């Protein structure tokens, strides 16, 4: 069984490398098969905040997606809700994050954690806006801002450990749907 897993893993990494060599993109998640096993909901209540929310995994025809909804509150030093998943591997030559999203017109964020983001409040962040229609968002790794000066200036694809979709930083109603998460 271990040999089969190794062969499948090597094949998947080889296929990813070929796609990137050809200028392609890699989808990390399309929310079609058991996303509740990979994604977890986190709110600022873990640190005493007052934000509330939830994630629902939905499908409509051939489309599957995650829907993050809730009330973001900055009361009591809070101010976020998010869904987050671990990343097994990202091609070293990935240039950025690619999303297919729609939402309520609010601004949302992608938070990346790396092998260098050790403390819970450390991350790299880039924002994106939503509309009521599905749209592709591309966020170059170079556009991600570090949460503190003790982190490297730009996240490296080879060190990425997790990705989060976050409603953050101000009082508002969150409602964002994510159909694909990947890298280009």
Automatic annotation (TrEMBL):
It comes from the Bacteria. It comes from Hoeflea phototrophica (strain DSM 17068 / NCIMB 14078 / DFL-43). The lineage of its organism: Bacteria, Pseudomonadati, Pseudomonadota, Alphaproteobacteria, Hyphomicrobiales. InterPro entries: Galactose-bd-like_sf (IPR008979), NADH-UbQ_OxRdtase-assoc_prot30 (IPR013857), NDUFAF1 (IPR039131). Keywords: Signal. Residues 1-21 form the signal peptide. Residues 35-170 form the NADH:ubiquinone oxidoreductase intermediate-associated protein domain. This is Complex I intermediate-associated protein 30 (CIA30). Belongs to the CIA30 family.
């Amino acid at each position: 069984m271990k040999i089969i897993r190794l062969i499948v893993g090597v094949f998947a990494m080889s296929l990813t490398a070929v796609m990137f060599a050809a200028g392609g993109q890699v989808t990390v998640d399309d929310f079609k098969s058991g996303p509740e096993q990979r994604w977890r909901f986190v709110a600022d209540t873990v640190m005493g905040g007052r934000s509330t929310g939830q994630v629902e995994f939905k499908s409509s025809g051939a489309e599957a997606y995650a829907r993050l909804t809730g009330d973001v509150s900055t009361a009591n030093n809070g101010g976020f809700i998010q869904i987050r998943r671990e990343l097994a591997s990202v091609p070293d030559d990935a240039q950025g994050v690619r999303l297919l999203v729609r939402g309520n017109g609010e601004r949302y964020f992608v938070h990346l954690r790396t092998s260098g983001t050790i403390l819970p409040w450390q991350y790299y962040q880039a924002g994106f806006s939503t509309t009521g229609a599905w749209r592709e968002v591309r966020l170059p790794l170079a556009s991600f801002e570090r949460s503190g000066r003790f982190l490297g200036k730009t996240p490296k694809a080879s060190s990425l450990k997790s990705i989060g979709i976050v409603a953050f930083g101000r009082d508002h109603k969150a409602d964002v749907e994510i159909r694909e998460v990947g890298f280009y």
